[in-house]
Automatic annotation (TrEMBL):
One of its GO terms (molecular function) is mannan endo-1,6-alpha-mannosidase activity. This is mannan endo-1,6-alpha-mannosidase. Pfam families: Glyco_hydro_76. The keyword Hydrolase applies. It catalyses: Random hydrolysis of (1->6)-alpha-D-mannosidic linkages in unbranched (1->6)-mannans. It is found in: Endomembrane system. Coiled coil: none annotated. Gene3D superfamilies: 1.50.10.20. The keyword Signal applies. It is an enzyme of class 3 (hydrolase). The lineage of its organism: Eukaryota, Fungi, Dikarya, Ascomycota, Pezizomycotina. Residues 406-461 are annotated as: Disordered.
Length: 612
């Protein structure tokens, strides 16, 4: 199937609220109101719970979104529902999840083969993990409970641990016929599995999962995807036995997986110093790379594609990545409390920035991508709504001290519908300690880890009234809302899933190393890989590669549309190209060293060629 309009993902957006979103980050009610607005804006884009929707379209965003983004978004919506007490989407979410369990209750669906890589499957599993940890209500007629599904998915994925090359690792793709990426072992697939294992270990107390997580972490480090300064690169090529890192792009979501997985391991190991060091390392690196204090006021941004510095724009998948860094920073703060002050500072600034960006469209509440601009950037879509939602509900969870539960925690109890009043919740005060950036090579400072994860309790005694839904994980307050009646009807039928094809690509890698001696608090070396279709116009390769003059990006620095042209794409997203995708992923074909002065962003340009 062709998607010539791939770049025009300006999906219809119908106002559910009017007026720009106001956010007072010190006011819990204000945070909830903003999150509610974003959630409604997001769900307006979801068409596939309408009566009559084909079974296999349920839970999936309209084309050209890939299957994985459903799982990704439902994870965020589940958490939002539980943290806010807004029950209006519960039925739609339950329906979306269960419709994708598959015959073995592990998120393997035969008709979704072309879009199912390990990471795609795992994003859905992580949504179910959140349902467990935040006690999201089970669907009435679920074919399996959440734990069963999470465990099945994890075990299914780990059954593909591949020791035939590189000493282990998970490939990006599951099926050999999905050749593009079948030779690629990447951080997102391994990072999702690492994090899910750590969370299952904490939830169940079963060390099988944490043993896997140790193993996955060690392997990822061993092939250079995690560096000594906690960079997380994108992937390695098993055709070369992972001799070198094939793609050194750093994405927020790769960091997010290893950050929060390490935080859960820190909890599982009762505060082992090695995991504490890793948590600190990933967090420090995220702060340096994804929140530029100098120019962006600690507001999160997608370094690799958002500012134009790198010479490329974010694709449809990448528009949503800030959602996952937001979500998983908040979870990190919950289970590794020594990070909380710092994380609160960054999420607060980001949520405020996001609110300013959610001022577009007819309703003046449509969210854009670039939170640091102080206004709407003209883009809109699932990724934009989801990212704003997640950073805001992440902030809400910090305010409420929400901690994921473990197995056996008491079930949520119905409470009365009395207006929820946050009992305490003082405004969080970012500490000044968080502002000092550790030198990259230095060990993270030892911080006393006083509070382990607080026990979670649903408190409040039930009685009477119409209450059905309550957020059980809220420590400082409980709340409830009458459940909205939502049709549970599951339409039958069939329709084709999304399919697309990819070009084979050659690669140009440009590395800009900062001269030593120059301020190196930022990334000492940044490498950017851009995939260029081989047939058409030659990529613009910076000539005079060793001069010190910064290379000027010829194009692509203007505001991106909702989704960038399909002409420029990077195989570093969480999705899977179609089964018809031809070429295997080659990794970086050539590297050009460019000594840059103060230019941080690497610059490379891919010329485009049409087609998907
Ligand atoms: C679909 O989901 C939306 C948002 O949760 C909800 O408002 C709507 O009622 C649902 N529609 C059906 C038919 O379930
Ligand atoms: C721990 O998890 C593994 C993998 O799911 C399972 O095979 C094993 O039975 C579990 N152990 C216990 C004690 O539940
Ligand atoms: C880097 O630059 C910042 C701001 O110019 C300065 O405060 C800091 O001390 C410098 N760090 C190093 C290591 O030179
Ligand atoms: C994800 O990356 C693949 C591989 O480059 C690409 O074909 C696909 O278009 C990307 N997905 C999206 C939604 O951009
Ligand atoms: C790719 O680029 C060509 C040339 O700039 C353009 O004509 C075409 O519409 C683009 N294709 C897509 C899918 O954006």
């Amino acid at each position: 199937m062709k998607f010539s309009t791939f770049g025009a993902a300006l999906l219809p957006f119908i106002a559910s609220t009017a007026g720009a979103v106001q956010l007072d980050p010190n006011d819990e009610a204000s945070i909830k109101a903003a999150a509610r607005s974003y959630a409604y804006g997001l769900m307006e884009l979801y068409k596939n719970n309408a009566t009559g929707t084909a079974e296999q379209d349920i839970g999936v965003w309209p084309q050209p979104h890939y299957w994985w983004e459903g799982g990704a978004a439902w994870g965020g919506m589940i958490e939002y529902s539980m943290f806010s007490g807004d029950s209006s989407h519960v039925k739609a979410l339950q329906q979306a999840l269960t419709a994708n369990y598959g015959p073995s209750n592990d998120f393997i669906l035969s008709y979704r083969k072309g879009q199912t890589g390990n990471d795609d499957q795992l994003f859905w599993a992580l949504a179910v993990m959140s349902a467990l940890e935040y006690q999201f209500p089970d669907a009435d007629s679920a074919p399996a409970d959440y734990l069963e599904v999470a465990v099945n998915a994890f075990n299914n994925v780990m059954g593909r641990w591949d020791t035939t090359t590189c000493g282990g690792g998970l490939k990006w793709q599951i099926y050999p016929e999905n050749a593009y990426g079948y030779n690629y072992k990447n951080s997102i697939s391994n990072g999702c599995a690492f994090a899910l294992g750590a969370r299952l270990a904490r939830y169940t107390g079963n060390s099988t999962y944490s043993d896997w997580s140790e193993k996955i972490y060690d392997w990822t480090k061993s092939v250079g995807l995690i560096t000594d300064i906690y960079e997380v690169f994108d992937g390695v090529d098993d055709k070369t036995n992972c001799a070198a890192v094939a793609d050194k792009t750093q994405w927020t979501y790769n960091n997010a997986m290893f950050l929060h997985g390490s935080a859960f391991m820190y909890d599982v190991t009762n505060g082992a110093s090695i995991w504490k060091e890793r948590v600190s390392g990933f967090l420090s690196h995220a702060e340096l790379l994804f929140f530029s204090a100098e120019t962006k006021d600690n507001i999160m941004y997608e370094w690799a594609c958002e500012t134009g510095e790198s010479g490329r724009t974010c694709n449809l998948d990448q528009q949503s990545f800030k959602a996952y860094l937001s979500r998983f920073m908040a979870q990190t703060a919950a289970v590794a409390p020594f990070t909380k002050d710092s994380i609160n500072k960054y999420l607060t600034a980001s949520a405020v920035g996001a609110a300013k960006s959610c001022s577009g469209g007819d309703n003046k509440a449509t969210c854009g991508s670039k939170w640091y601009t102080g206004s709407w950037d003209g883009t809109s879509g699932v990724g934009q709504q989801l990212s704003a939602l997640e950073v805001t509900k992440a902030l809400l969870s910090l305010k409420q001290n929400i901690v994921p539960v473990k197995q056996g925690a008491s079930e949520p109890k119905p409470t009365t519908t009395v207006t929820p009043k946050p009992s305490s919740t003082p405004a969080a005060k970012p500490t000044s300690a968080a502002t000092s950036k550790p030198a990259e090579s230095s060990k993270p400072a030892e911080v006393p880890s006083s509070s382990k994860a607080a026990p979670v309790n649903s408190a409040t005694v039930p009685s009477t009234k119409e209450v059905v839904f309550t957020s059980a994980v809220v420590v400082s307050s409980t709340k409830s809302t009458a459940a909205a009646a939502v049709s549970t009807q599951k339409p039958a039928g069939s329709s084709a899933g999304v399919a697309s094809s990819c070009l084979s690509r050659t690669t140009v890698t440009v590395t800009i190393s900062k001269p030593s001696g120059v301020n190196t608090t930022c990334t000492p070396s940044t490498t950017l890989t851009v995939y260029v279709p081989p047939v058409t116009s030659a990529p613009v390769v910076p000539s005079g590669a060793t001069t010190s003059a910064p290379v000027v990006p010829p194009v692509l620095t203007t505001l991106a549309p909702a989704a960038p042209s399909a002409n420029v794409s990077v195989p570093a997203n969480g999705s899977v190209p179609s089964s018809t995708a031809p070429a295997e992923f080659q990794g970086a074909a050539s590297s050009i060293m460019v000594m840059g002065g103060s230019t941080l962003g690497a610059i490379a340009v891919a010329m485009v060629a049409g087609l998907l």
